[in-house]
């Protein structure tokens, strides 16, 4: 045997130049994001002395633009070049983030500016994500969906391992506002790499209904599809409760209750994030062993439940830091099992021509509950305290698995059948 690839067989992803460019773009921007996720709440807490409720609003505003995703996704479906929209979104996020170090040098950083940065970068993220689903479906062969999502999630997980430690060191050395420039640079690099990708994107059909009608069609498809309806309910429940605890409140809890330094928080989050790296690597193997649906269910429980480990932490400094790291480790494994399998399953059951509008409808609910959860988290943290709020988030999040128990999802084993409304095998 010559070992040559048979005609029509997809290239292995690590030999696919277009995928490598996309993977590289996602990897570099993910590492930059880890800096900003730590820096923005730290600017609010340390430089502007923000309250728990004000920190929660910062998280809420970054996700609020997802409430418009149903309309934006319907608009994106009409656009012939999703790649260009993704590049534009990356450039916009990079430029907005550069405003923070600029105003810091002028001594003019305000909480209002942080809110504006969160809102604008969140809006650009919605544009990127609604374009992403249709672009990904034609960049990667169907048989490689789980593998591609695993590779993308592995690099994302690696960013959670090294990113917080790097971010914490940058924040301590340069100040949080200046450290955000690293994320801005990462988006500019991502825009350059995605701009160089060449792949066929089918043009939208000539006869297109209005944007609002396409938006309604996207939501109707989600509601009527038994798999999408159940996974949306599960994901939205997970998101609501995990955002009650939110990154901002977790940083506030680690700072004021666990009394960890910025460097200590970054180190704990970075060490704990090795769980996400492990989860991303083993998710395809577990998916083959357990099945796609059961793997989603395992992640739906493990991801939110792990917050309780950090919430119950006490004792010496090393125990407090270790508990935060362990909580992140378990959450990382859970979220990778959940995301990799769920994203692959969704891609397999949505057909071409409606991907962006369905993605937008899905995101409106799934991500739209995040600012609501963050706002509720701020109110609860103010009224009952940080620790009880985190415990409530952990307990409520585990209930998300009930959506899957009463659906076809738990019976889904592989993604082997042709694409379509019932494109799964049991």
Say what the CATH topology is: Growth Hormone, Chain: A
Low-confidence stretches: 1-8, 417-426
Tell me the name of the CATH homologous superfamily.
Answer: MFS general substrate transporter like domains
Content of β-strand: under 5%
Write down the overall mean pLDDT: 81
Subcellular location: Cell membrane
InterPro entries: MFS (IPR011701), MFS_dom (IPR020846), MFS_trans_sf (IPR036259)
Main location: membrane
Keywords: Cell membrane, Membrane, Transmembrane, Transmembrane helix
Please explain how this structure is put together.
With 426 residues, the chain is mostly helical. It has one domain (13-411): Up-down Bundle (Growth Hormone, Chain: A). The protein has 20 helices and no strands. Helix 10 runs antiparallel to helix 19. The longest helix has 33 residues, at 317-349. It is found in: Cell membrane.
């Amino acid at each position: 045997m010559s070992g040559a690839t048979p005609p029509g067989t997809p290239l292995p992803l690590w030999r696919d130049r277009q995928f490598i460019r996309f993977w590289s773009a996602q990897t570099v921007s993910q590492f930059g994001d880890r800096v900003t996720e730590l820096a923005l709440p730290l600017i609010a807490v340390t430089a502007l002395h923000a309250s728990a409720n004000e920190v929660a609003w910062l998280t809420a505003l970054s996700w609020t633009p997802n409430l418009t995703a149903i309309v934006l996704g319907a608009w994106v479906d009409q656009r012939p070049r999703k790649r260009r929209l993704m590049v534009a979104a990356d450039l916009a996020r990079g430029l907005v983030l550069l405003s923070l170090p600029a105003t810091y040098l002028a001594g003019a950083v305000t909480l209002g500016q942080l809110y504006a940065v969160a809102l604008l970068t969140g809006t650009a993220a919605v544009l990127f994500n609604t374009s992403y689903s249709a672009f990904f479906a034609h960049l990667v062969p169907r048989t490689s969906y789980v593998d591609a999502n695993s590779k993308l999630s592995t690099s994302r997980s690696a960013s959670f391992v090294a990113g917080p430690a790097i971010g914490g060191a940058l924040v301590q050395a340069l100040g949080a506002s200046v450290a955000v420039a690293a994320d801005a640079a990462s988006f500019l690099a991502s825009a350059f790499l995605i701009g160089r990708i060449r792949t066929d994107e089918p043009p939208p059909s000539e006869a297109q209904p209005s944007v609002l009608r396409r938006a309604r069609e996207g939501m109707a498809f989600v509601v009527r599809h038994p798999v999408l309806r159940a996974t949306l309910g599960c994901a939205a429940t997970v998101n609501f409760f995990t955002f009650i605890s939110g990154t901002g409140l977790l940083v506030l809890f680690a700072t004021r209750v666990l009394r960890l330094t910025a460097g200590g928080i970054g180190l704990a989050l970075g060490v704990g994030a090795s769980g996400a790296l492990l989860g991303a690597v083993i998710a395809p193997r577990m998916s083959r062993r357990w099945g796609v649906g059961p793997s989603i269910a395992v992640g739906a429980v493990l991801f939110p439940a792990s917050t309780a480990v950090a919430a119950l932490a006490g004792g010496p400094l090393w125990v407090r830091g270790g508990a935060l790291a362990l909580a992140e480790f378990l959450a990382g494994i859970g979220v990778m099992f959940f995301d990799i399998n769920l994203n692959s399953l969704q891609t397999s059951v949505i057909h071409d021509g409606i991907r962006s509008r369905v993605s937008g409808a899905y995101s409106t609910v799934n991500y739209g509950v995040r600012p609501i959860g963050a706002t509720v988290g701020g109110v609860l943290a103010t009224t009952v305290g940080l620790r009880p709020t985190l415990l409530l988030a952990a307990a409520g999040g585990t209930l998300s698995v009930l959506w899957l128990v009463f659906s076809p999802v738990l019976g889904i084993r592989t993604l082997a059948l042709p694409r379509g409304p019932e494109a799964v095998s049991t």
